[in-house]
Amino acid sequence: MAVKLDLDDIQGLIARGYRTLPHARFTIFAAHDAAGGHALLSWLLPRITPAGRFAGNSALHLAYTADGLRRLGLAEGVIAGFSPQFIEGMTGPNRSRFLGDV
Fold first, then answer.
1. Read out DSSP for 35-47?
2. CA-to-CA distance for 48 and 89, rounded, in angstroms?
3. How many domains does the chain have?
4. What is the pTM of this model?
5. 11 strand-pairing partners
6. Which of these, 24, 72, 75, 88, is most buried using a 10 Å CB contact count?
7. Whole-angstrom Cα distance, residue 63 to residue 48?
8. Does 76 share its domain with 48?
9. Would you state the pLDDT for residue 17?
10. Cα 11 to chain centroid, rounded
């Protein structure tokens, strides 16, 4: 049985590589408590580009670290379901070597 994906619930970057967009900008936000993180997320969510509605010359996507999810108050049991690479993060011992980014 084929499953129909809800493209409005998937970030567009997952569905396409945006080859036609010539530039990228990465902005790092930090929220030091759950309330600040929730306020930031509430502001960002309506601006995220879903897979089903890309048009134009820009796209916005959102990524979190495991620590960022913890600060939002996500239960440790949920975070434990992510891959070890995600949980350990980019600064773990030997991570840059594993990625070939030395």
1. HHHHHHHHHHGGG
2. 23
3. 2
4. 0.71
5. 50
6. 72
7. 11
8. no
9. 76
10. 9
In the chain, count of helices (H) and strands (E)?
Answer: 6, 0
**CA–CA dist 89, 87 (Å, integer):** 5
Going by C-alpha positions, the residue among 64, 62, 61 that lies closest to residue 86 is: 64
Residue 42 predicted with pLDDT over 80: yes
* Distance spanning both ends of the chain, measured CA to CA: 45
Q: Does residue 102 share a domain with residue 69?
A: yes
Looking at the fold, whether 51 and 71 belong to one and the same domain comes out as: no
| 4 in a structural domain | no
Encoded tokens for 35? 């309330």
User: What is the residue range of 45's domain?
Assistant: 11-16+24-63
